[in-house]
């Protein structure tokens, strides 16, 4: 079935350090890919969305590029801040079958 695998566990960073959270996916189709962020005490919010290969999306200093060849959608930020402390979810949606998968990562 469709699934995503992302960097496991908690990452501790100092302010100003760069961040990469890996996200790889498996799908028999051509899925849409998403990053969600969940700040403490809040519900998940959509951070980034990519619909097709080579889409490069950015929001709040975060960016990710849809790489169909490597089946990846890694989340990157050049300089993290304390306010970036949150749980980050990588997710996919198969527009053909409607199936979905997700994984989470806490920063």
Count of helix runs? 0
What is the terminal separation in angstroms? 28 Å
The mean pLDDT is 89
CATH H level: which superfamily? Immunoglobulins
Spatially, the strands of the biggest sheet line up as 2-8-7-6
Helix content: under 10%
Secondary-structure element pattern, one letter each = EEEEEEEEEE
Total number of distinct structural domains: 1
The second-level CATH architecture is Sandwich
Give the class-level CATH name: Mainly Beta
**Major sheet summary line:** 4 strands, antiparallel
Unreliable spans are 95-99
Looking at the structure, the CATH topology is Immunoglobulin-like
Which structural class matches the secondary elements? mainly beta
> How many strands?
10
What value does the Rg take, in angstroms?
13 Å
Share of residues in strands: over 45%
Set out the fold topology.
Blueprint: E1 3-6, E2 19-21, E3 23-26, E4 32-38, E5 45-50, E6 56-59, E7 62-65, E8 75-77, E9 87-93, E10 100-106
Antiparallel strand pairs: 1-3, 2-8, 4-5, 4-9, 6-7, 7-8, 9-10
Descriptive account of the structure:
It comes from Mandrillus leucophaeus (Drill). Residues 2-107 form the Ig-like domain. Pfam families: V-set. The chain has 107 residues and is mainly beta. The protein has no helices and 10 strands. The N and C termini lie far apart (28 Å).
């Amino acid at each position: 079935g469709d699934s995503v695998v992302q960097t496991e566990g908690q990452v501790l960073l100092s302010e100003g350090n760069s961040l990469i959270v890996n996200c790889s996916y498996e799908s028999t189709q051509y899925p849409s890919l998403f990053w969600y962020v969940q700040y403490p005490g809040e519900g998940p919010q959509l951070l980034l969305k990519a619909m097709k290969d080579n889409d490069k999306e950015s929001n709040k200093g975060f960016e990710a590029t849809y790489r169909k060849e490597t089946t990846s959608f890694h989340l990157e930020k050049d300089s993290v801040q304390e306010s970036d402390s949150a749980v980050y979810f990588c997710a996919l949606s198969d527009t053909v079958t409607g199936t979905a998968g997700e994984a989470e990562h806490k920063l």
